[in-house]
Amino acid sequence: MSTGKAAKRLGVSVKTLQRWEREGRLIPVARTDSNRRLYTETQLREFIGWQQGPERPTRLVAYCRVSSTAQKPDLANQRRVLEEFVVARGLANVEFVEEVGGGLNFKRKRFLALMDEIGQRSINTLILAHRDRLTRFGFEWFEHYAKTHGCEILVLNQELLSPEQEMAQDLMTIVHCFSSRLYGLRNVRKKLNEALNTDQDSAE
After folding, report:
1. Mutual angle of helices 139-148 and 109-119, in 10-degree steps
2. What are the pLDDT digits (tens) for 98-146?
3. Residue 104 or 53, more confident
4. How far apart are CA 154 and CA 132, in angstroms?
5. How much is the pLDDT for 8?
6. Average confidence score pLDDT of the chain
7. 44 phi and psi, to 5 degrees?
8. DSSP secondary structure string, 157-188?
9. Is the distance from CB of 139 to CB of 166 less than 8 angstroms?
10. Beta strand 30-31 with 37-38: parallel, antiparallel or unpaired?
11. Do 126 and 151 form a contact (C-beta atoms < 8 A)?
12. What angle do CA 46, 116, 25 make, to 5 degrees?
């Protein structure tokens, strides 16, 4: 179809259509021998769909996390705070997700499921008591990822630590993580030695 018909189909002026071509937003599929622009119905339908964008998700999810089973009372308290918040905000049909796992563990089952759902554009808002409940490091990247997939991350406690405090906490988290791994390796080594000694005693 001609530029005039395409412009009428889209509800814009011919000049707007020409500007969109210069901007690379809508390029004619072909031109006539006299250099007139030509468009197709399929092309315009696809463009309209792109302009409107995907349907905005409506799900609201509140995510609660603690690092160990010993902290389960803290998990219950964290959920209570979030429940009070959503009630005060008048938010309805909020889904609550609870998880036990370290903030440096990016293989957490429910964390990964949450990221998959955000990637599928099925979550409108993710609510956290504090940013480190989602991840101990790289929160800004996950916030960007959520935003680009139509999800807003809402954090209740926006208090920011000083650079020194933040670095100290980060170092403590890293030390704790690696010391736990080292302790685990020592236990494995101890059990292996015990098993080897038992086999040697049996052989004698």
Report:
1. 40
2. 999 888 888 999 999 999 999 988 999 999 999 889 988 889 999 999 9
3. 104
4. 13
5. 87
6. 80
7. -70, -35
8. E-----HHHHHHHHHHHHHHHHHHHHHHHHHH
9. no
10. antiparallel
11. yes
12. 25
How many angstroms separate the CA atoms of 82 and 96, rounded?
Answer: 9
Where do we find the tokens 């599929």?
29
Residue 55, token pair as written in the block: 């349907």
Continuous H helices in the chain? 3-10, 14-23, 41-52, 72-89, 109-119, 139-148, 163-203
The verdict on whether 179 is a catalytic residue reads: no
Interior/surface letters 9-39, b for 16+ CB within 10 angstroms, e for the rest: bbeeeeeebeebeeeeebebeeeeeeeebeb
Compare 147 and 25 and report the one with higher pLDDT. Answer: 147
- Predicted confidence (pLDDT) at residue 19 exceeds the cutoff of 70: yes
For 152, the token pair is 């807003």
Higher per-residue confidence, 185 vs 2? 2
From the list 13, 34, 67, 179, the catalytic residue is: 67
